[in-house]
Design a protein that fits this description.
The chain is α+β, with helices and mostly antiparallel strands. The chain has a single domain, classed as Dimeric alpha+beta barrel (Alpha-Beta Plaits, 2-Layer Sandwich). The chain is 25% helix and 31% strand. The chain contains two helices and six strands; from the N terminus they run E-H-E-E-E-E-H-E. The strands form two sheets. The chain has a four-stranded antiparallel β-sheet, covered by helices on one side. A two-stranded antiparallel ribbon has the order 3-4. A hairpin with a 2-residue loop joins strand 3 and strand 4. The longest helix has 19 residues.
């Protein structure tokens, strides 16, 4: 799984020329993953301000507005890809449009079979 993190302050504004160019680069990246036959799923996430964190403590469900951790970089989306090894996943992570100002965490999905 390729987990996409960004500091929203570093990303181009969506309604700017740079933001529209960035959108096009994400679209092209997704097409490249699909055409390579490695894309399983992927979606952007709404902003961290829309998150609700849920915990159960002492049998009581507690909810908090916002993400679990306070951090500048937020989880902005993901791609689930099917590749042979970590090296291939790292190549795809390095092609991500946000790689020059964001972070991509590459993590295997655990197989319980």
């Amino acid at each position: 799984m390729l987990l996409i993190y960004n500091d929203p302050a570093d990303a181009p504004a969506l309604d700017s020329p740079a933001g529209r160019e960035q959108h096009d680069r994400w679209f092209d990246y997704t097409v490249e993953l699909r055409e390579a036959g490695v894309l399983i799923a992927g979606d952007p996430l709404e902003g961290a301000e829309t998150a609700t964190t849920v915990r159960v403590r002492g049998g009581e469900r507690l909810t908090t507005d916002g993400p679990f951790a306070e951090t500048k970089e937020i989880l902005g989306g993901y791609y689930l890809i099917d590749v042979d090894d970590l090296d291939q996943a790292l190549v795809w992570a390095g092609k991500m449009p946000n790689i020059t100002y964001g972070t991509v965490e590459v993590r295997p999905v655990r197989d319980f079979v």
